[in-house]
Design goal:
alpha+beta; Heat Shock Protein 90; 4 helices; 7 strands
């Protein structure tokens, strides 16, 4: 998404906090799709300003880590009455703006379903005219080299 953000002269930053392990076990395709759907909307609906992605550890227990990823932007924001509906298929806060940007209203519904597959949750904090913060959590396995015990690699992929 960096080229699109650069074309709009948006500041795009990523902050992966030091406590996040370098190697995790999970589904990298689903994880990537969630981030791209949320980040794509942030770029699409932010005219000026910034988009910041932050990843941090929410909890570590046994052989698992719960990560929280937050995407904050200075975009148009989402009215309070529409914040719960935004994760429904084909729902668009501003249909005219979405059509202008080729939106279908499926990205956040897909992200919500994928987050469920990752045993996480997704939510939004927003104020009209002052931007949004989309957050999601995902439960991932700790790679064996990162755990003090015997967790085993299992059938998951390295993230």
């Amino acid at each position: 998404m960096a080229p699109e953000a650069r074309c709009k002269d948006l500041e795009l930053s990523l902050d992966v906090e030091p406590a996040v392990p370098d190697a995790l076990l999970g589904d990298p395709v689903r994880l990537r799709q969630v981030v791209l759907n949320i980040l794509g909307n942030a770029v699409k609906f932010t005219v000026r300003g910034y988009i910041k992605v932050v990843v941090h550890v929410e909890s570590i227990g046994g052989c698992e880590v719960a990560l929280r990823c937050s995407v904050r932007d200075s975009g148009i924001g989402v009215p309070p009455a529409q914040q719960e509906l935004i994760f429904e298929p084909f729902y668009q806060v501003d249909g005219a703006a979405a059509r202008k940007h080729s939106g279908t209203g499926l990205g956040l519904a897909i992200a919500s379903r994928l987050v469920g597959d990752l045993r996480g949750r997704i939510w939004l904090e927003s104020e009209v005219g002052h931007g949004s913060a989309f957050h999601f959590t995902a439960c991932l396995g700790l790679a064996p080299s990162w755990t003090p015990g015997d967790c085993g690699a299992g059938p998951s992929n390295l993230v």
